[in-house]
User: What shape does this take?
Amino acid sequence: MRISSSAITFPRRLIVAATFTAEPIRPYLDFWLETIGLTHEVEVAPPSQVFQSLLDPGKIAISSKTLAIALLVRLEDWGLQSQGATDDRLFTAASRRRIEANLQDLIDVLTNLVAPEGPFCLLLFTPPSFDALQDLDRAKFCCRMESLARNHFKGKSVAVKENVDLLETQVDGSYYESHSDFVAQIPYSEEFFAQLAVSIARSLYARQTPPFKVIVLDADETLWQGTCAEVGPKGIEVDPERHVLQSFLRHQRDKGRLLCLCSKNDAADVAAVFEENPQMPLKWSDFTAKRINWQPKSENLHSLSAELGLDIDSFIFIDDNPLECAEVASACPEVLTLRLPPEPAQIPVFLRNQWAFDIPPSSKENGDRAQFYEQNQERELLKRRAPTLASFLASLDLETQIRPPGPSEWARISELTFRTNQFNCTTIRRSVSELSRFVEAGGECVVLKAKDRFGDYGLVGVVLFRQEISALEVDTFLLSCRALGRGIEHRMLAYLGEIALERGCERVLVPYTSTTRNQPAHSFLEEVGQSFDDLGGGGRRYWWLAGEASTIELDASRFPLDRGGGSSRGSPLPDAFPLTGAILERNALLQRIAEELADPCAVVEAVKSLKVRGNLSAPSCSTPPRTPAEETLAAI
Assistant: This one.
């Protein structure tokens, strides 16, 4: 089972280079990339060809193909005077200098390579040999080197994983193979090569699929042991495993995910636990919204979706009760429903193996998401007190800035093209490299940032357009749902009209492609549109004379004030989303990975089975045979 990739751009090439022989990883990469639906061409470089792979202009050709690079670095390999040396395994001052020099060279090469338009790179520091692991000085030194690289690339297009991250996921059995390391520079077991493949595939998946935005949690027997209504706020127990769970959830919130409570309880009993029990890492204020009542949890999830203005298929629901999970899975199949393991000892494993919890590199706007929704509650209070929509908008003191993007903003622009569904006129998705190619081909981009008296919305609007002979023709016109209903979209269109006037263009053209979710964009275009051309298949091209477009603004008197969470025009309607096959496939895939493929041993057996049945393609040689001896070996 695989996820439909029709709306997502995946790397078509994956280069793997290592300081050791990495060829055994190939069948496991093939297996995982096939499983998660990535079209790919995997190239595994010969041993110790890390720098050669990165500096080869024929391989790193990013102008015509999207590309991902996975670098597997075992630092002790760089400490050897020559590859395969047996008398140089001791950790000497010379070894230290060689490792430091090679690592600095790698940092310099990657820094130049991974410009915003460059390829995605994953740098995996793989575990040392047993001898190196038992040398405390060497272990501390390597830890410092790995931290140096991680800190240097923080917030950049290089994802860094340290060897302790990989060892934490290792199952029973030894990861290290001393004999094959000595004979063929193959230091790891089959199971560990399978685990390395998981790390690579998982990083690509997290980076290139729309992330979940909300985690909804039960209370009793989920966040703690015990029933708060029966034992009281100080009678419940936060065992070590649930302490791990709550700390994990706190980290998820800090990275931009919203936490919500959904519990069949009395609200006062649940609130008292957070206020009075000192064992709780989570606080009452960490939850953006709460539904503590006796209604079906599926109804509460739809209610939360409406309040937050977020699609319900971006929700994860966690409960210990199998009946509650079944009810939500049946009534809300768009939601990823996860049952908390009944055995507390399995909770850390559950958290570690669920890919849905992975957090891709995020912008500042995502990290501030929880804070934004807290500020939005203050906006809603102001709205309930305002007599009209016009007075509410006037009291916001809304400020907008429209301008070309800065160098550090392209990742956020790409992120918005993938995540914005409701107010997105064409829903064209673009990676950073594709955005770069659009601009290189003569396209232009402007972004919108907004703030009001309650806080900063951040970068929430994007317009991509081209100047034709007599018109500005829009390619992408989008606005984050957090900023809808405040007249910001009108300001964006008026700005295009001003550009058209300055350049002597007659018209502004905005195409619209109908999807299951972008009705708010259609409503806006119908509201302000003067004329349109029917493009067929639900598509239209709206157009305005440049002067008319430049004067567009929101007429707030035309719209009643919706006191339930947004203006009536353009407010989301998340209770009627059609269920798509891709969403069901996504949920089934994530469940299968967590339940069937979490153990690398299971992956090894699955790959062996596919090989026996002939369902897994044979690996292609990285370098064609050049001599009769090599031809014989390749045939074997």
About this structure: The chain has 26 helices and 17 strands. The longest strand covers residues 455-467.
